[in-house]
Amino acid sequence: MEHAKAPAGTQAIGRALAVLKLLAERSGELGITRIAEHLGLSPGTAHRIVRALVADGLVAHNPRTDAYYLGAGTILLGQAAQRGFGLDRALPVLEQINAETQESVNLVVREGGESVVMLRVQSTLPLRFEQHPGARFPLYTTASGKAILAYSDDVEDYVAALPRHLRKITARTLGTPAQLATQLEEIRERGYSIDEEENVAGVRCVGAPILDADGRAHAALVIQVPAVRMPARRVRELGARTVTASKEIAQFVPVDRMMSR
């Protein structure tokens, strides 16, 4: 197979990354026409970029459907990244909490103004909230985001830059930056954060920051529970459990790698 030469320059790199992200988000196959439409490219440009990614093993082609999907090379990259982030060592901690509580457990990092699920152990109970690694949400709506913000060195700048009225995700999402600032103070006093159905109706969460040696948050550990299984007493119990587990993870995970702004 002739290797396609990708267009030179940073624009070509950005477009190639956009193709990979698109295929990751769709979790399936996409044809050249749809890739081009999604990314605002001409079909010819999209085809050249995709062929270069196929040549490097990052994208694969299905000749039966003439569509493309993430290739085996991305699996190897993902596995290497997981080892670099220490997620392979964090996973047993999440699995232990899942076994103790039978609830879903996430390890979440910050990317700009969003919290991103990096690792998840799903509850096996019939009533649960379905989610997947890669899911992302505004920081101010989640237990993970608020736990990270409370111990971030740019928290004042983040809060000051928010609009006067925050975008509502559910009826219980915080409405103003002042409400968020109050909650962040409470989190620092308590040690863990609470999401009172602020991101998903019917789901309550507790989270604790994973801190570096200087006491700054780069990630968070979160337990997600349907509200019907989460009375106030259990909020306190699981909140305390996230704190101990986050401290355990911080001992062996290079948390300073885990935040991108």
Automatic annotation (TrEMBL):
Key words, A-Z: DNA-binding, Transcription, Transcription regulation
Highest taxon listed in the record's lineage: Bacteria
Domain HTH iclR-type: 10-72
Record domain IclR-ED: where: 73-255
GO MF annotations in UniProt: DNA binding; DNA-binding transcription factor activity
SMART domains listed in its UniProt record: HTH_ICLR
One of the protein's GO biological processes: negative regulation of DNA-templated transcription
Entry keyword Transferase: no
Species of the source: Prauserella cavernicola
Record flagged with keyword Nucleotide-binding: no
UniProt-recorded name of the protein: IclR family transcriptional regulator
